[in-house]
Amino acid sequence: MSRVGNHFLKAGRLLTLAVGAIVASTVDAQAQVLRDTTGDGKVEVLAFGDSITYGVGDGNNPGDYVPEITDSGNPRGYPTRVSAATGLPVGNAGSPGERLVRSGLERFASLVVGSDVDTVIFMEGANDAVHQIEGAQYRRAVQRIVNVARAEGKSLVLATLPPPTANHASLALFTTFYSSIVKDLGTINDVPVADVEQRFLSACPDLNTCELYNLPEGLHPNTNGYDAISEVILSTVAQ
Predict the structure, then answer these.
(1) Per-residue pLDDT for 31 more than 90?
(2) How many CA atoms lie within 13 A of 99 on its CB side?
């Protein structure tokens, strides 16, 4: 073989090794989502978001007629399911009505900076959609969430948003864009993404009759919907 041939062969091997190392690093990072990052000998998880993290609408079954939801009730939703499945404490930091770009960022920092939390699961944006927050603002806010978690040495999972339907179908234009931003930032920052949006779209070709939502309210999941969200979260942290 010529010197040129040897050169390209060696270059190809180096490239293969480099790509393999990157893939291995990514897989390893995702496999270590639930870990003791604070060194206190235990793993604590924080679920951060708005009313969908809080669990508004949980307890209603498919077929129940729910035109609107005015009572938040007690915290429930996917955090309780993830805690039961993993045996780990999962704090429910859902705040109904909160906008990420308005008060969510400050609240996130107040809960995470200097805390004993090891892993944060982040899913927020429904109320930003209600107020038609532009994508650029939302993107900056999510990146700041990533930055704060990284600066504090916390493990982080980003989650996409369930696509609103029926009475709240008009919000889907914004939540779909927000979810694409979440996935993009997950890739750029090498952060695992729980694709809740895709789970709902796959389960429900017709969202207007989707058995994962309280209908016709169409914004908050029902019992089945929160089960689905928890399944996506669990499959993501188990990778």
Answers:
(1) no
(2) 12
